[in-house]
């Protein structure tokens, strides 16, 4: 099944150019099927780039997925046209009375900012509390994972001395967990963060199932036992050149960043980077949609309640 997104969204032409099945709104409305309703809270400055990356991963599923875009930072931005935001993005007030099968909260360039100094921290708290009663499963990515751990487990912000940047090997744990279904014993995934997620710290202070870890990058994937909250500390959605663009940006700003680990051939930024994480990125999102969302969500979202959840496998 395809992903359903607005016909004029820039991602539509990009994804169709990649031979990804994107269904028009008119055709989708004629099908006798209940699509999964997924809300994407996009906190990244370059919203068009980020929404395209996540929509690409959501498209790799046999389920029809209807995605709505959400924003909470209403300040003018130089990275995304105002017309685009006004046309394609919802305000929280427009969706707060509805229920959704899934919610994705993206990363944000706030690694060195204390939570209480984030301008929209109260709005983040409001949405995460709202999700407890209105969303079947929430996927927290990178900075959002740290924010989710703070709000759900009251874990303080843990910041590394140096930025973690590169593509790292990870080991899977609990291979029978459905979120890991089809994963190799070891796999690659990109990271770009200052946050620190050690397996020992999460094991001691939470009841999360720790599903994938790296000796260098710490915890990559963890989830609550009911799969209603899934935490991804890296960036499986990144394009091949995203880390490169971040690196060259930081070099241009005189920050003297370290070369992203295991990213450029021969560790030479003059060489074109190689994408080595696409397959497991697609698999992770497909598993989340199937086992955390589709198998758990009520058919009638108007009847959403805790009692609707099952241990579907």
Low-confidence stretches: none
| Structure classification | alpha/beta
Helix count, DSSP H or I runs of 4 or more residues: 10
Q: Which CATH first-tier class would you pick?
A: Alpha Beta
Query: Can you summarize the main beta sheet?
Result: 12 strands, mixed
Helix-strand sequence: EHEHEHEHEHEHEHEEHEEEHH
CATH superfamily, by name, is Class I glutamine amidotransferase (GATase) domain
Number of E strands = 12
Structurally, how many domains make up the residues? 1
Which whole number gives the mean pLDDT? 91
Give the termini distance in whole angstroms. 20 Å
Family: Belongs to the MetA family.
Site (Important for substrate specificity): 192
Active site: 142 (acyl-thioester intermediate), 235 (proton acceptor), 237
Keywords: Acyltransferase, Amino-acid biosynthesis, Cytoplasm, Methionine biosynthesis, Transferase
What are the salient characteristics of this protein?
single chain, alpha/beta, Rossmann fold, 12-stranded mixed sheet
How would you sum up this structure, described in words?
The structure is a single chain. The chain has 313 residues and is of the alpha/beta class. It has one domain: Rossmann fold. The protein contains ten helices and twelve strands. It has helices at 10-17, 25-30, 47-58, 82-88, 92-95, 121-134, 143-153, 199-205, 242-252, 278-294; strands at residues 3-4, 22-23, 36-41, 65-70, 89-90, 100-105, 135-141, 159-172, 186-195, 209-214, 218-223, 229-232. Strands 1, 2, 3, 4, 5, 6, 7, 8, 9, 10, 11 and 12 form a twelve-stranded mixed sheet that branches. Strand 3 (36-41), helix 3 (47-58) and strand 4 form a beta-alpha-beta unit. It is globular.
